[in-house]
Specification:
There is one protein chain. This protein is of the alpha/beta class and about 180 residues long. The protein contains nine helices and six strands; from the N terminus they run H-E-H-E-H-H-E-H-E-H-E-H-E-H-H. The radius of gyration is 17 Å and the shape is globular. It starts with a helix and ends with a helix.
Amino acid sequence: MVTIADVQRARQVLQGVADHTRLIYSHTLSRMLGGHIYLKPELFQHTGSFKLRGAWFRIANLTAEQRKQGVITASAGNHAQGVAVAASGANIPAIVVMPATAPRAKAEATRGYGAEVILHGQTYNDAFQHASALALEHGRTMIPTSSPGRARWASRSWRTCPTWTTSSFRSVAED
């Protein structure tokens, strides 16, 4: 279970990493779904996605030995860019394995953020298998696309939504 302390720690680690993204109340979705629906437009982040936060948090928690060995991931785009920016910010070497079918713009942006990009296979699963093999072969730490992120999510959302209370946070964290 994610605790308030987890949220506070994530908030400290991520301070200044990504732009604060305000929540936008959706009248249409709120009416359609019978509740208060807020949208969080993460597309305005430097990398165009929220994925930077998860990658940064994971990389910030690496040991000295893991930092020295570097990181690796498999992604077709947004996570790739998040890992590249986070690794570059920490002066850690990063390899990103992308399927050959990944959008060229995503691969180029990932290279531009400092990662070595390897195009392999036709699907994400092909890229993931290759990245896993390279991680073992070279002793790199795999940065998964779906690492536990509830504390990061709560850190960026809980303080923003005007109708949330501590009990709202607990129900979200216990999902």
